[in-house]
Write a structure and sequence with these properties.
alpha/beta; 4 helices; Conserved hypothetical protein from pyrococcus furiosus pfu- 392566-001, ParB domain; about 30% helix; about 130 residues; five-stranded mixed sheet
């Protein structure tokens, strides 16, 4: 019999230590729901600022942290899509982003993003193209 105390079993919903919390994730590690990453759905000023940050090398320090959900396989982006889009447009595949990582599937990321008013304002709405 071992003299080490037995550690409590981890519930399946818990993720390994070091996966959750605040950490840097690279562009290539992030997954984005197609509906949330519509071409042309970004605030142009925010996108241009993000592109300038990527070019100058200051994107890694951008605050606040991007919200990400981890489903034990993929990291699903849930906020600050303009930063991701800036890196994509510039081909900065190894760009790192400061992220707040929580457990959850793609659906959690979509629901979280759907509650962000600024994101909803920039989604394409065919009826809003009057000029």
């Amino acid at each position: 019999m071992s003299s080490y105390p037995q550690l409590p079993a981890r519930p399946s919903a818990r993720l390994p230590a070091g996966v959750l919390g605040l950490d840097y994730l690279k562009f290539l590690q992030l997954s984005v729901d197609d509906e949330l990453a519509c071409e042309g759905s970004f605030d142009d000023v925010a996108l241009q600022d993000a592109m300038a940050a990527v070019r100058s090398g200051s994107m890694r320090a951008a605050q606040p942290a991007m919200k990400v959900f981890f489903d034990s396989c993929q990291y699903w982006l849930a906020s600050h899509f303009h930063r991701y889009e800036a890196a994509r447009r510039l081909g900065a595949r190894h760009q790192e982003f400061w992220c707040e990582i929580q457990p959850g599937p793609k659906g959690h990321a979509v629901r979280y993003a759907s509650g962000i008013p600024s994101l909803m304002r920039f989604h394409r709405d065919p009826s809003a193209r009057a000029g």
